[in-house]
Amino acid sequence: MRVLFLGKGRHQDHPTIGPFLAMGPARGHVVQLCDKRQFVDGDLPLRELSQFDLVCLKSHYQDPQVAKTLERIQVRSVNRLDATVACLDRGQLERRLRAAHIPLPASALDIQEAAALTFPLVQKPLAADLHKVKMHTEPPSFDCNRYFYQQYITAPVNYKVYCVGERMFVAELGCDPESCGVVSSRRWLDQWEASLGRHALQVGQTIGLEIFNVDLVPHEGEYLTIDVNPFPGFVGAEDAPSAWWEYLESL
């Protein structure tokens, strides 16, 4: 199998992506790290790109030229481009998850919904590739054209569930002031062992993602989806490189 990994040069030294790239030849595959310039600017001819069996979409999927190149070469991508792009706008993603009845915190997509939120709340840029998050304990000057507003849920822990097909790796993080953001445990989870895993898979299936991360917080007997990220780095999941290859080999 020939795999093209659309990423950035620094991914060669990434703690998960680097081993994934190095592991390919040992498993009998050709794998090549490719940056945007090579993929869309002609550094790699379309004829050569079309010889690959799969494209891993880690980076640059925001560029419309990437979509054009994928269409021209007719090579399957993981994740699919439409599923990846669905995660780029937090407002559009929220609408899609609402329509599928995925449990979510209260949120605001317009001024009317914003006025109904209670505090504290979290302000996030609508563009998901921007990561500046701000907490509000009193009404801000709402700007629903630029920001997405989400009710802050108080819980003892939250979970980052990383999915590779139906395999799941869970990182448990503290939420209290002393342990906020500190990973207290990491483990691989069988999909039928917990509602946590089933919920994460439901989110991925709703969007059409295959390799992804869902941030979940427990609330009143269920898990609420806080955020969704296509093709995350899986940092801390020691077996992630082999899990990625096993999934790609199954396609």
Structure description:
There is one protein chain. With 251 residues, the chain is α+β, with helices and mostly antiparallel strands. It is 29% helix and 29% strand. It is built from 9 helices and 13 strands. The chain has helices at residues 17-26, 36-40, 46-49, 64-73, 81-85, 90-99, 111-115, 195-207, 240-250; strands at residues 2-6, 30-34, 54-57, 76-78, 107-108, 121-125, 134-136, 147-151, 157-164, 167-174, 183-189, 211-219, 222-230. The radius of gyration is 19 Å and the shape is globular. The relative contact order is 0.15.
Radius of gyration: 19 Å
CATH class of the largest domain: Alpha Beta
Average pLDDT for all residues: 91
Number of helices: 9
**SSE string:** EHEHHEHEHHEHEEEEEEHEEH
Tally of distinct domains: 3
CATH topology of the largest domain: Rossmann fold
What is the count of β-strands? 13
Which structural category do the helix and sheet elements fall into? Answer: alpha+beta
* CATH architecture descriptor name of the largest domain: 3-Layer(aba) Sandwich
Described by strand count, sense and barrel closure, the largest sheet is:
5 strands, antiparallel
Shape: globular
Low-confidence stretches: none
Query: Could you tell me the strand content as a percent range?
Result: 25-35%
Give the N-terminus to C-terminus distance in angstroms. 11 Å
Q: What level of helicity do the residues show?
A: 25-40%
Major sheet: order of its strands?
Answer: 11-10-9-12-13
